[in-house]
Amino acid sequence: MSPRRKRASRDGAIAAAFKACAKERRSAFIPFLVAGDPSLEATPDLLRALVAGGADVIELGVAFSDPIADGPTIQRASHRALAAGSSLSAVLGIVERHREELGVPIVLFTYYNPVHARGVESFAAQAADSGVDGVLCVDLPPEEGLRELQPALEERGVDSIYLIAATSTRERIDRAAAASNGFVYYTARSDVTGEREDLIPTLAREVKRVRRRVRLPVAVGFGISIPEQVEEVAKVAHGVVVGSSLVRLVEENAAEADLAGRLEHRVAELTAPLRG
Amino acid sequence: MKVRTPLAAAALEPDEGGRYGVYGGRYAPETLMAPLEELSRAYDKLRRKRTFQRRLNHLLEHYVGRPTPLYFAERLTEHLGGARIYLKREDLLHTGAHKINNALGQVLLAKEMGKTRIIAETGAGQHGVATATAAALLGLDCVVYMGEEDMRRQRLNVYRMQLLGAEVAAVDAGSRTLKDAINEAFRDWVASFADTHYVLGTVTGPEPYPRMVRQFHSVIGSEARRQLRRLAGTPDPDVAVACVGGGSNAMGLFSAFLGQRDVLLVGVEAGGRGPELGDHAARFSGGTLGVLHGARTLVLQDEEGQVVGTHSVSAGLDYPAVGPEHVFLHDQGQIEFTSATDQEAIEGFHLLSATEGILPALESAHAIAEVTRRAPGMEPDQVILVNLSGRGDKDVESVLEYDAASGGDAE
């Protein structure tokens, strides 16, 4: 087993957030935004809006020049963020200044190269110092992550979260589950990120298949964008991730003075089914 | 000479995770991990199977046109006044470049795996044309992703692919070149792997691509060695030169000479407009260790790990990363890397055209440029082997444009 004990000071904020939701007998809501979109200055307000709207955990996207797992909406947001000067350093700066005030765990959602370029030790140290609670690298499966990044994160009490997909074999599910801390992320679609009209019909069965093998909370994302879908997924998942539809709202309202207000309103609509 | 692709040969293999030392690996989204594992298994099973080898070699001989000649470039040798220069004529292959060796191998493999649809990325268009050709031959659907900028530079190849029944999907993201076409092909594959095989065109990407693509091209080196023995009296040249974008033609040639200390292997990258980051695609002089398109390798990137734009007059070399095995072999001292600028490549293009009546692809012209620098300083009894990886018909318009802009030969 991997050494999953010595948690640092903020012992398992992600686990605690899921536990608190479980106590309220509801699923956690996990919104995703690309940090720095539309600007680095706007990001803190947008994060506050996510919390005010009912976020339990925030997935903060680090823009990357070559986002191979993302559909057009998040690709565009990544390019806007990069053009606005966003970078891993800038994102860590935002977390450092606002994590405490926000009061909810933050998971960095990133491609591996920006982390690799900084150096894993240096990244892990800075992530921990900034208050980052967990890291999910889209293109770092457990076989690579366990060797390269996870030891450095673990030493500093930062959670590693891995993806599980519909294509994951039992062995792969077990490996991701054993390696993850906090929660595992099940991708509801074998596809890039993006909004979809319908959930795949076998989703509930698939999530149950994963839950049977995983002791950690299972969050489900990819293709979930409207309250009805949130409600549906919440029946089987411990957490529901909504990304592209919020990113699109930011894109369409970037020039509006009350962008943050609109975002908060939308998040409240999405979380309403969870609060019953 | 019989065509024998050394698929089952005990060549230098990466470890189980696809790692060459600290390079390579399998850095892919989870959804693709199982399909990649399936691909590794299928490839390892088939490459050892006699029926598969026979089928591939038969097509390579009767359809593709292997073996390709090894040609002693007498007038170029005289002109440069030094080492004897031999050209491995991959430009004479069906579809006009070495790319068909790998494309055909992978499409055959895909067919064996029961896939009905083929996707590919292309830069210069040669890999796209080769893949579209193999898909037409074997009756599979084919979609080729190509950056808009490359479609403009290589519009004849776009039409060729369409004539072959492929759909050419324009990629307007990022720099609109090869790297963005690869991004888009991966995005397609994440959703389509059940019935689709992704024919990656070079020796990078997640395991098993680097070793699989190299092995399909290793026929280049193994043929050249046998031919050199006959023509030059020695199987081993003093120097072997190949251009390196992702590095597939170079790996194909070099694979036959690895571990032979008396053969100097030289890879030539695109020096573009100059040494400033963004003006070239010379990863060995301007790149740092990174992870792109599934492999850990040298990448042209900024200090925040964002991949930067590249430039080359040659679309096929215009790529910010390089095959991981190249980096490993460079560390081992087995391959030396240098670069040729746009200007030097264009001069190489003109020189080979005028002295030998051969229009090289602009990619291969980078290798010719290195030969013009190196041959004069060598002895007349020494041998340079050059991989002439493709023909230049596709580049005539680019050369015309370049010469017009610089007031050069074409005016």
Characterise this structure.
The complex is a heterodimer of chains A (276) and B (411). Chain A is an alpha/beta fold. Helix content of chain A is 49%, strand content 13%. In chain A, helix 4 runs parallel beside helix 6 (120-130) and helix 5 packs across helix 6 (120-130). The model of chain A is unreliable at 1-10 (pLDDT under 50). Chain B is globular. Chain B is of the alpha/beta class and 411 residues long. In chain B, strand 1 and strand 2 (23-24) form a beta hairpin. In chain B, helix 4 (99-112) packs parallel to helix 5 (126-138), helix 5 packs parallel to helix 7 and helix 9 crosses helix 10 (248-254). Chain B is built from 15 helices and 14 strands. The chains are: A alpha/beta (276), B alpha/beta (411).
Set out the fold topology.
The complex is a heterodimer of chains A (276) and B (411).
Chain A: H1 13-23, E1 28-34, H2 43-53, E2 58-61, H3 72-83, H4 88-102, E3 106-110, H5 112-118, H6 120-130, E4 134-137, H7 142-148, H8 150-155, E5 159-160, E6 163-164, H9 170-179, E7 184-187, H10 203-213, E8 218-221, H11 227-234, E9 239-242, H12 244-253, H13 259-275
Parallel strand pairs in A: 1-2, 1-9, 2-3, 3-4, 4-5, 6-7, 7-8, 8-9
Helix pairs in contact in A: 2-13, 4-6, 5-6, 11-13, 12-13
Chain B: E1 19-20, E2 23-24, H1 30-47, H2 50-64, E3 70-72, H3 74-80, E4 84-89, H4 99-112, E5 117-122, H5 126-138, E6 141-147, H6 148-153, H7 155-163, E7 167-171, H8 178-192, E8 196-199, H9 209-232, E9 239-243, H10 248-254, E10 264-272, H11 283-286, E11 288-292, E12 295-299, H12 324-331, E13 335-341, H13 342-356, H14 362-374, E14 383-388, H15 396-406
Parallel strand pairs in B: 4-14, 5-6, 5-8, 6-7, 9-10, 9-14, 10-13
Antiparallel strand pairs in B: 1-2, 3-4, 11-12
